[in-house]
Amino acid sequence: MGDKRTSSGFLLKQRAFLKLYMITMTEQDRLYGLKLLDALRDEFRPFGYKPNHSEVYKALHDLIEDGVLQQVKRKKEGMKLQEVVYYRFPDGGYEKAQLYKRQLKVELERCESMIKKAIRDNYGYVESATNP
Amino acid sequence: MGDKRTSSGFLLKQRAFLKLYMITMTEQDRLYGLKLLDALRDEFRPFGYKPNHSEVYKALHDLIEDGVLQQVKRKKEGMKLQEVVYYRFPDGGYEKAQLYKRQLKVELERCESMIKKAIRDNYGYVESATNP
Description:
Chains A, B: This is Replication termination protein. Two copies of one chain form a homodimer. By secondary structure, chain A is mainly alpha-helical. In chain A, about 55% of the residues lie in helices and about 10% in strands. The first copy, chain A, has a single domain (about 15-125), classed as Orthogonal Bundle (Arc Repressor Mutant, subunit A), CATH 1.10.10.10. In chain A, helix 1 (about 15-25) packs across helix 3 and helix 1 (about 15-25) crosses helix 4. At the A-B interface, helix 1 and helix 4 of A face helix 1 and helix 4 of B.
């Protein structure tokens, strides 16, 4: 799978990162339409990371395709004609989501260790200079 | 630049990561031929990261193109006909390398913070349960 590039197991992919946030936002009942895009952009602005519409769309699509999330349309309160799209776990979706979250925790921790190692390997002697 | 994908500023690219290691290995006088590939594979095996030949080649090529590294051929000790390829900083290369390393330190720290944030945002409630 993934004809675009063979994975060498470098840092986690943006797609996985976005899917993780989508699952958590669904748990917290706050995944509405594409509000997510604004929410993530706000959260990650201080880090210089700006997820784009197409990445977010593909991540959502993956989760729906895999039966993790389900799109639901609901009438906006007090509005007869306006609908709002939100997401919830279909039957079996919550369990799949929890499995995915457990896998992603391992993956995030792996990435954190790799980055720490790179800081140590490439700048270690700078920091050790401040030690006795 | 970068017609393959527009950068949304997600985690650092593998290419940059490899270039950083190449610079440090040159500082330590241990960047020989493609030994680097074996060295990096050994170092990152526990992390499930296996850089491939083409990635390493492209990173080296970038550094040479940018005047950071220079390829030198040297006769192997005691061998009349065998040459070994190694890398050193050409004139001005060391300064460029140091600038790159400073930039990459900021970038690695940014990535570390983003990953820590993701762990906190998506698993925080688990860990906080152990706190008073």
